[in-house]
Amino acid sequence: MNIYFAPLEGITGYVYRNAHHRVFGGADRYYTPFLSPNYTHRLKGKEAGDVDPANNEGIPLVPQILTNRAEDFLWAAGELADRGYREVNLNLGCPMPTVVKKRRGAGQLADLDALDLFFEKICSGMEQDRDPDRDGKRSWKLSVKTRIGMDTAEKAEALVGIYNRYPISELIVHPRTQKDLYRGEPDLETFAMILDRSVHPVVYNGDICTVSDYQRITARFPACRGVMIGRGLIANPALAREIRTGEPLRIEELRLFHDEVFKALQEWLPGQAPLIGKMKELWFYMGNNFRDADRSLKEIRKAKNIVSYQAAVRTLFAQGRFAEKQ
Q: How confident is the model at residue 156, as a pLDDT?
């Protein structure tokens, strides 16, 4: 069963992906944090760098696009195809209010008629890109990452009916509504319905943080093509490998991974504050690998310069004890 590394804005850019792929591996695909094309039809500097093939050599990468305008989506997909990408992922799953209020991400699930029209336009555009009589013919696949509704899952059946009408290569389903954000339990009954009725391959996403979580989901839904893991893999970057081989995270490789990410970000980010801020975001997740390390983790959170940050990290790795995984 495939294991995909979900994107997380601000963390899983190309610096992180390269270090993860070198040190741990185990993921069949990585997905970029979403690109947000607009009427200018230009990739921003950060976005362009993140999808630059030179920054992703050897990484099985799928770019993700967030927009509710078909013309902007098609432009971005074409640009990505020109860079060598053969699949793009449409984000209909982001539940954050700043995104949803613009009717993007999960916000597009509020109006299923408009969503249907959106798919009709982008899939028509896909066919034109594949037209052999068209100069500069390009070919790319469309996958979709979705939630199961806005406030409730009552329209989930109608939603999967829309997806079934279009040439989607893969449907990645996070079985929560937009209103749920990341709270509560995933709606596995609705996911089962979608898996049963979808004509497309389905991937499960949501709350896989341990090997036992993976085993529970895959045992219940053996027809899934795979799983997508986000925060669980950021917290335990060896999780995909552990699922496949049983080899758990080791403290020395977590230190190697940390040092690779730190060094690369230090060369890329302008100044101490952005660098330390990024590393603190990582420790919000990775700190859960340690027991009885509250003091060291507190010192990491308090660090305001590289010297104090590195001192706190050295103490954590020297004195911290790994928590037991299940």
A: 98
Provide the CB-side half-sphere exposure for 246 (13 A, CA): 0
Residue 132 has pLDDT above 60, yes or no: no
Give the position of tokens 């004195």.
Answer: 319
DSSP string, 265-326: HHHHSSSHHHHHHHHHHHHHHHGGGEES-HHHHHHHHH--SHHHHHHHHHHHHHH-EEPPP-
Position with higher pLDDT, 323 vs 163:
163
Residue 285 to residues 47, 51, 292: CA-CA distances in angstroms?
A: 24, 25, 16
Q: Which amino acid makes up residue 204?
A: Y
Find tokens 């939603």 and name the residue: 159
Name the token pair of 34: 């979403």
Contact between 204 and 4 under an 8 Å Cβ cutoff? The reply is no
| Distance (Å, whole) CA 174 – CA 302 | 34
Tokens 């898996």 appear where?
A: 195
Element (H, E) at 275: helix 272-286
Q: How far apart (Å, rounded) are the C-alpha atoms in residues 46 and 253?
A: 28
Tokens 């027991």 sit on residue: 291
The encoded tokens of residue 89 equal: 């992922």
Q: What is the pLDDT of residues 265-292, one digit of tens each?
A: 999 888 899 999 999 999 999 999 998 8
Classify 76 as helix, strand or coil: helix
**Rounded to an integer, what distance in angstroms lies between the CA atom of residue 135 and that of residue 148?**
39
Tens digit of pLDDT for each residue in 9-35?
999 999 999 999 999 999 999 999 999
Task: Judge contact between 243 and 211, C-beta under 8 A.
Answer: yes
CB proximity list for 263: less than 8 A, separation 6 or greater: none
- Identity of the residue numbered 161: G
Got the DSSP string for 175-205? Answer: -S-TTTTT-S---HHHHHHHHHH-SS-EEEE
Query: What is the pLDDT averaged over residues 50-56?
Result: 97
Say what the pTM is.
Answer: 0.94
